Amino acid sequence: MSKVLIVDDEESICWGVARVCEKLGHPTRSASSAEAGLREAASWRPDLIVLDVRLPGVDGITAIESFRALLGPVPIVIVTAFGDMATAVRAVQSDAFDYLLKPFGVQDIQAIIERALKRAPRSIEPPPSAGSDLIGASTVMQSLYKRVALAAASDASVLLQGESGSGKELVARAIHRHSARSKGRFVAVNVAALSPSLAESELFGHVDGAFTGATRTRPGLLAQADGGTLFLDEVADIPLPLQVKLLRALEEGAVVPVGGDEPTPTKFRVVAATHQNLAQCVAAGDFRHDLYYRICAFEVSIPPLRQRVEDIPALAAHFMSLAGRSSVRLSEATLDELRSREWPGNVRELRNAIEHACVLSRSGVIYPEHLPPAQRRLDEPMPATSELAVVAARRADELLDDPASEAVVYERLMAEIERPLFERALARYGNECAPAARALGLHRTTLKRKLDELESST
């Protein structure tokens, strides 16, 4: 039995969390402000604190230091309905045990409480504070801020998955800026832009006379990233022969330049990004599985703009400011038009559209006619469902021909398809049900019910 202190100015939250704790056999006390919570903590000595960020008086994250001075390394779970990059980073900097977004489900808070009371609090080297070019207050962006903050607090390799134009380099720079390597260099490499004949020299460097035109020794990009972060954009495009050499460099912490014999020590953090499904590239033999596991210790999925249309007004205002037109405003009809578009080019396409409109608008108001035509998804790859449909049809025939599947063909086929889909979504979001459900387009309770049904059927 452990004592849990709940500090939140919403009575419904205090009541709900208290019911969860009572179900687990843990007594609780509640406080509506940080000051009241500190008074309770001084006399009651709780084993766990559930702490809201926005409180009357001292905010929750500021109060963490006082709770730490009073109670020592007691696990503190931060909850907030107003997540952003700064809040997520401050929570991690303050060594909070976890960071939970409102509204949350009973199972979400129960799982965190059980985990917090079983484990010692994490010791995280606090990264320096800095600004961020990541903009948005949508639910998916709040989840992204949390993932970025967690990634920045470690030195693990990170794989960023996201569509073109969704902001992968901005996320990579945010991870670097908030990490312990922030004073080192951030070296960005667009692998797809490297000349195939010179890619090895660009990455690993070369010595004088290594090839025709090599008139002096030149360090490669990997050596230049020593002590900092190496950002490999479009990592799926690395040629297979270079993948072998890159893996060796990562494993040994040294690079051998083209034409050289002596390795050059270098230690850097790898953040890789791709718009392709890297796991599928591995399955197709286009990407080495050992390199995949080496660069994918922690995965961050970046949402496309169409999944966070509520962020469009803030993004548009930011881009108008960058264009020197901060006094320009968007008409309601223009906002409606922006929200209705699919944005295949994501945030990059939105920025181009706003800049285009700023040029045309001379009245201080941007109307729909000032926007460029909506872009079609001309670069959209052939849907993977064409291959999936063939496999599903073949499996359907097998089940229909199987007498043992009489009257359960649908359930069996759906279970076989849903299981890997749900497992992949949960793995991508750190086994957190709420963001996985949002990505799948399901309600959290629906996903939990389906997972329970699949578990009971095995």
Give me some keywords for this one:
alpha/beta, five-stranded parallel β-sheet, globular
Structural class: alpha/beta
Number of helices: 19
Q: How many beta strands in the DSSP annotation?
A: 16
The largest sheet has its strands arranged as 2-1-3-4-5
Mean pLDDT figure: 84
Which residues sit in consecutive blocks of at least 5 with pLDDT less than 50? 120-131, 381-385
Q: Biggest sheet, in brief?
A: 5 strands, parallel
Strand content: 5-15%
**Which descriptor suits the 3D outline?**
globular
- The oligomeric state is single chain
Overall helicity: 40-55%
Walk me through what this model shows.
The protein has a five-stranded parallel beta sheet, sandwiched between helices. It contains 19 helices and 16 strands. The chain has helices at 11-23, 34-44, 60-71, 85-93, 106-118, 139-152, 168-177, 199-204, 221-224, 240-252, 278-283, 289-295, 312-322, 332-340, 346-360, 385-401, 409-428, 433-440, 444-457; strands at 4-7, 28-31, 48-52, 76-80, 98-101, 158-161, 186-190, 205-206, 218-219, 229-233, 254-255, 264-265, 269-274, 298-301, 329-330, 365-366. By secondary structure, it is an alpha/beta fold. The protein starts with a strand and ends with a helix. Helix 4 (85-93) packs parallel to helix 6 (139-152). The radius of gyration is 25 Å and the shape is globular. Mean pLDDT is 84; it is low at 120-131 and 381-385.
